[in-house]
Amino acid sequence: MIIFWHRRDLRITDNVGLATARQQSSKVVGIFCLDPNILERDDIAPARVTYMIGCLQQLQQRYLQVGSQLLILHDEPTKAIPSLAVALNAKAVFWNWDVEPYSQTRDQKVREALQQKGIEVYNSWDQLLHAPGEIVTQSSKPYTVYTPFWKNWSQQPKAQPVESLKDVEGLTEKELDMAESVGTISLPTAPDLGYSWDNELLVAPGEKAAQEALETFCDFAITEYQQQRNFPSIDGTSKLSAALKFGTIGIRTVWEAAQTAYHLSRSDETCDSIQTWQKELAWREFYQHAMYFFPELAEGPYRQEFKNFPWDNDPKLFQAWCEGKTGYPIVDAAMRQLNEIGWMHNRCRMIVASFLTKDLFINWQWGEKYFLQKLFDGDLSANNGGWQWSASSGMDPKPLRIFNPASQAQKFDPDAEYIRQWLPELGSVDTEYLVTGKIDQRDRDTCGYPALLVDHKQRQQEFKQRYRQQKER
Predict the structure, then answer these.
(1) Which of 101, 103, 22 is nearest to 63 (CA)?
(2) Which residues pair with 73 in a beta bridge?
(3) Element of type H or E holding 162
(4) What is the pLDDT along the chain (473 residues), one digit of tens a residue?
(5) Among 147, 233, 240, 416, which is least packed, fewest CB within 10 Å?
């Protein structure tokens, strides 16, 4: 018997570690461990837990379809997994590696505990097209700048999807009883775990829904991705971020679909759009490689000048930002979207992150945490990388970047469609005033919309001054 420990790979299709386990034995059983060290943190989004539980429900059904089971544990992995493996007399436990600091520490402890009990451990890289260490500089060091990483990464051959799990043997009734005696449980609901999400999820959970979303995107939106991806009122993105975070679809499957669309393209514009999306996949891998080689990123800024930056960290200003009450329509619309559906368009993520750090002078880590408390696709590496990019504290060849909310709205929401969608109280206000933010105070009072929290031009100048002073120290 082989146990396969699922984590960020909630699927049986194109799963490297699972396919390797199946090659070793026809008796393969899946497990998922609800880890208290993760679930009891204060940066876990109810929408994300709800999506994860939905994915696990689908995965259990997939296992039953091929003849086996997915068992659920809710305990410390370092104790629960070795205990289960011993009780089932498993020969080995397989799992796919992760880049996050906690995962690496936990995995090493589980590995040691299993090996002490004479149980073999096998690991694979699955969530990346290129594992950490495969894409390095000429001096064999990890990249800290995206563009040369992309140039190298894009030139390397990509692996094909691996075979799906099939024709497997599951546990007998006796073995299922044994598993239950050492802690396996029925899959709980999100409320059972203390997380309640009453709204609909932006996308359906599970392997089938992810595959359908990929096919739909590659049939239509990917061909115009370059032109439409920055406009939040247009449904021009793949919506695959949560599927990739939880691994309900394999990255090799995703790449193959994009390549197929590329080869079917009949214009340079379409090819450029598809490659633009492929560059986003490379950004995902760049941030994961960065987290693997520089785990300190999870705890603070990469750039020295931001180690002791003089943030104001005004809790009242932060609360106004969280609630979408800054007086800047594009910022507030984005925050309302985040709070209501657990997701935010990527262009808007950059706008609100710049506003929090460069206009309100609030530490980017406050925003990073708030995003993880809300996003159903929240991922440590991508979220951290995006926030440090926006705050200018991360790996970025342009160290100081400030977004003007008005110019961003004028360029990417010129008809104020997005603003009106999320700020319906401003529906009657003239479009020009919505996108520039120059709404008359009487109109603000009439609509119940707050005054400008700060003056962007003034704060921009002050931030630059603080930044210069910090660099000179």
Answers:
(1) 22
(2) 33
(3) none
(4) 999 999 999 999 999 999 999 999 999 999 999 999 999 999 999 999 999 999 999 999 999 999 999 999 999 999 999 999 999 999 999 999 999 999 999 999 999 999 999 999 999 999 999 999 999 999 999 999 999 999 999 999 999 999 999 999 999 999 999 999 999 999 999 999 999 999 999 999 999 999 999 999 999 999 999 999 999 999 999 999 999 999 999 999 999 999 999 999 999 999 999 999 999 999 999 999 999 999 999 999 999 889 999 999 999 999 999 999 999 999 999 999 999 999 999 999 999 999 999 999 999 999 999 999 999 999 999 999 999 999 999 998 888 999 999 999 999 999 999 999 999 999 999 999 999 999 999 999 999 999 999 999 999 999 999 999 998 87
(5) 147
Task: Give the integer Cα–Cα distance in Å for 53 and 49.
Answer: 6
Just list the catalytic residues: 280, 283, 311, 346, 364, 387
What is the rounded CA–CA span in Å between residue 456 and residue 446? 24
Closest C-alpha to 34, from 67, 10, 17: 10
Domains, the chain, ordered by start: 1-126 (3.40.50.620), 127-159+207-293 (1.25.40.80), 304-472 (1.10.579.10)
Encoding tokens for residue 205? Answer: 């959970």
Contact yes or no for 117/48 (Cβ under 8 A): no
For 409, other C-beta atoms within 10 Å of its C-beta total 25
Please list, in sequence order, all residues whose beta carbon lies within 8 angstroms of the beta carbon of residue 411, skipping any fewer than 6 positions away.
230
**What pTM was computed for the model?**
0.97
Distances (CA, A) of 96 to 12, 167, 384: 13, 21, 22
Q: List CB contacts of 350: < 8 A, sequence separation 6 or more.
A: 386, 389, 390, 403
Q: Please give the DSSP secondary-structure letter assigned to residue 120.
A: E
Q: What are the residue ranges of helices labelled H in 97-199?
A: 101-116, 146-155, 173-181
